[in-house]
Amino acid sequence: MKPFKNKQTEYKECFHKICVVGGGLTGAIMILLLKNSGLFEKGEIAWIKPKEKKLSDLRTTLYNSKSIDLLKNSGLLKSLKQDDYTNVRQISVFGARGSLPLIWDSSDVTNPLGIIIKNEVVLNAINEQLNDIIHYD
């Protein structure tokens, strides 16, 4: 890492045991998992995250059952409102013209096939949990 200027305007070398580059969804989830793992002190983790451009991100992600467990275990799902995500109970994949679709159906009302969440919603929820992590622009 390059030295950074502290409040006394002196240069100081910084050392972090682990550094994640990228301010998107993947980088944010990785930082959250590292923070919650208990393997590192907070000062040992750094996040290189470019300054955000305030453009609306309309992308969404489908989280399968394993990813839903990850969201639950990290406390993210609990922090979301019911309106923030949509349960997926059926997935249909259409093939060649005239062929019948492949259909996956969830018969279990309590466990959907997945959930769809706007990336921006998940990123905001993660960022709230990462205020104490050192980050660089």
Task: Write structural notes for this entry.
With 137 residues, the protein is an alpha/beta fold. The chain has a single domain, classed as 3-Layer(bba) Sandwich (FAD/NAD(P)-binding domain), CATH 3.50.50. 27% of the residues lie in helices and 27% in strands. The chain is built from four helices and ten strands; from the N terminus they run E-E-E-H-E-E-H-H-E-E-E-E-H-E. It has helices spanning 25-37, 65-73, 76-79, 119-129, and strands spanning 4-5, 11-12, 18-21, 45-48, 60-64, 85-88, 90-93, 102-105, 114-118, 134-136. The strands form four sheets. The protein has a three-stranded parallel sheet with strand order 3-4-10, with helices on one face. Helix 1 (25-37) links the parallel strand 3 (18-21) and strand 4 (45-48). The longest helix has 13 residues, at 25-37. The chain is elongated, with a radius of gyration of 20 Å. The two termini are 12 Å apart. Mean pLDDT is 87; it is low at 1-11.
Condensed summary:
27% of the residues lie in helices and 27% in strands. By secondary structure, the protein is of the alpha/beta class.
